[in-house]
Amino acid sequence: MRWLMSLGERTRPDAPTYAEDPAPDQARVLALVDDFAHLFTVLQQWRQEYGEELTAWAVQVEADDVENLPAGLIERWEWEGAPVRIDTERERGGYVTVSDYREVPVRPGISAHTTTGLPLWTTAP
To answer: Sign of the CA dihedral 108, 114, 119, 121?
Structure first.
C-alpha cells in the first residue's frame, strides 16, 4: 500500500476551514509516496510552490504510478473523498494538523459532499 495525496482547493474566503477535496483526475497536483511520513516532505515542497497555508487530502492506495490510477479509486474518491486531511497553518508557527477520518462514523459537521455532489471535507468549528 502507498499513500496518494492531492492538493485541496480553498475556494471560500468566507470559510477559511473549507477546502474542496478534488478527485485525483481533477486535482491541480498529486503525489504518490511509499510511507505516510514522506507526505510531509511533499507538503513542504508544495508550501514553497503554492503558499504557506494549504490543505491536502490523502488516502492509502494500491497503485504503482500516479499516471495510471485504478478507475475504482477515482470513482470512490469522487463519492467518499479522501479520509486524511492535512492542513498547514502559517499563523500558528507553521504547524501541520493531520485529521484522520478513517474510523470516524458519519456525523454532523463532517461532510464528504456538497449539496451539488462536489467532493469535500469540512469540519465544524
So the answer is: negative
Residue 51: left if φ>0, alpha if ψ -120 to 50, beta else—which one?
left
Tell me the whole-structure pTM to 2 decimals.
0.78
Q: How does residue 92 score in pLDDT terms, banded at 50, 70 and 90?
A: low
Closest CA to 3 of 84, 74, 122, 96: 84
Name the residue among 96, 101, 42 with its Cα closest to residue 66: 42
Q: How sure is the predictor about 38, in pLDDT bands with cuts at 50, 70 and 90?
A: very high
**CA neighbor of 111 nearest in space, from 66, 89, 81:** 81
119: pLDDT confidence band, cut at 50, 70 and 90? very low
Q: What cell was used for 31?
A: 503525489
Residue in the structure block whose three cell numbers are 492531492: 6
